[in-house]
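Lab notebook, bench 4. Still working through the backlog of constructs that have no structural model yet. Next entry is a single chain of 229 residues. Request: give me the structure tokens for it.
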Amino acid sequence: MPAVKINSFSVVPKSLHKANTITLSWEIENAQSIKLSQIRSGGEAVDLQSDMPAIGSVEYSIKETITYRLSADNISRELTVKVGYGPIIKYILLGLLAISVTGVIYIKWPSQENSEPRSNHRQTSQVIENINSPNCPEELYSQLLKEGEELALKGNYTSAESKFWDVQKLLDVHDCLDKNKAILLQKKFIRKAEQFCNTYRNEPTLKYIPNNYYKMAAILQKKKPKQCL
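Model written out:
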């Protein structure tokens, strides 16, 4: 029997400054039983959902730091969503320290991945080798799409974009590739972007999340990205 695999288990956003909505996403292979639990402070697991699909996502509104456990048969994976002002307080304190030492006001806030399109992407050596190859690089193409989607689900948007720029370069050169794969992923990202845009409509600091999904969708179709306003 094929081994059970948890290919991905991620949350967007990874942390919150105050009570808000998060989205948990997962992808599992070969599992007979899939459930989601919340881990309480004493270590006790409280089941939230059972008989879950192998691929999916769910939203929760949370007010405090919570750890979630995704169980697939006899294996599991955990992640923690932090709620609070820890990162901001840290940077304020560092800024105040800089002022006291130098007399110059300079506070650098925690960065959020840039939503502007990138134009200086450099292809990987693997892609460069396949650009002028007479063989159809369908396997590499599918691999890049899968890796890019996994990175996006983990919130590694810049790395995901890099994969999709490579995808687009292969599509430009090889007519043999199945363009529907990129189109399906592009549509999936548009749906996620619209979902996140609706969720964070009144949270300007979190709109970078849907905007990054809009941007990745635009890269896959070589179009100007939409914006969550």
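Notes after review: Helices lie at 86-102, 125-131, 138-153, 157-173, 179-199, 208-221. The two ends are 49 Å apart (CA to CA). Flag for follow-up if needed.
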